[in-house]
Amino acid sequence: MSDPRSTPPRSCTALSLGSNLGNRESLLAMARAYLGAGRLVRILKASSLYETEPVECRPQPWFLNQCLWVETDLPPALLLSHCQRVEAMLGRRRSVPHGPRTVDIDILFCGSLAIQTPNLTLPHQALPNRRSILAPLAELGIPWRHPTLGMDVSSLLASCRDLSRVALVVPGVSYG
Questions:
Q1: Domain presence at residue 162
Q2: What pLDDT is attached to residue 2?
Q3: In this structure, is residue 5 part of a structural domain?
Q4: Where in the sequence is the domain holding 19, given as residue range(s)?
Q5: Rounded to whole angstroms, how far apart are CA atoms 48 and 135?
Q6: Among this protein's residues, is 104 annotated catalytic?
Q7: For residues 172 and 176, what is the distance between their CA atoms, to the nearest angstrom?
Q8: Given the residues 24, 32, 104, 162, the one annotated as active site
């Protein structure tokens, strides 16, 4: 396992954003802006938005999800702190595990780092099992392989057994 305080490869870090409370699209836009403020994180590419069915805690409103390919000099532990500060600024409350939230920001991976601490697991443990993460991540075309599974994102998506609904958001179409 790598040290979560070590610096990740600059151009192979991915984040997942999700929101299922409030104005989801605006909250995701604000999350992107706050993440990049102060030049701590530079967004290289953002996926389209996807409307996704909740998986772990039902019933609750459906999510809007998006993945980002970012560049940062922050080591994973500090990147996690930065993401959690952004969540808090946007009203995130952690009262119900996997419950409704204004914004959720997860670190999916930092290059080939494999980290497992009480606060951070990289690659994200849900990554191979969630279409809501894999579909927008595949759109980004990041040349990355899961360090323990040895599969690229397209292969992970093709082998994913998650049957929850994931739909590309089309601009101008109203979503619940």
A1: yes
A2: 57
A3: no
A4: 13-168
A5: 10
A6: yes
A7: 13
A8: 104
State yes or no: is 152 an active-site residue.
no
Q: Which is the catalytic residue, given 24, 101, 130, 131?
A: 101
The CATH number of residue 164's host domain is 3.30.70.560
Of these residues, 10, 85, 106, 152, which one is catalytic?
Answer: 106
Residue 92 bears catalytic tag: yes
User: Residue 56: its pLDDT value, please?
Assistant: 74
Q: Look at the chain and report how many structural domains it folds into.
A: 1
For residue range 37-89, list pLDDT tens digits in order. 888 899 999 999 999 998 876 688 999 999 999 999 899 999 999 999 999 99
In a domain, 1, yes or no: no
Q: Judge whether 162 counts as a catalytic residue.
A: no
Distance between CA atoms of residues 172 and 6, nearest Å: 43
| DSSP per-residue letters across 118-142 | SS-EES-TTGGG-HHHHHHHHHHT-
The neighbour count for residue 42, using CB atoms within 10 Å, is: 14
Contact 42, 68 (CB under 8 A): no
Q: Which of 92, 130, 131, 162 is catalytic?
A: 92
In a domain, residue 7? The reply is no
Give the sign of the dihedral formed by CA 66, CA 60, CA 173, CA 23.
Answer: negative
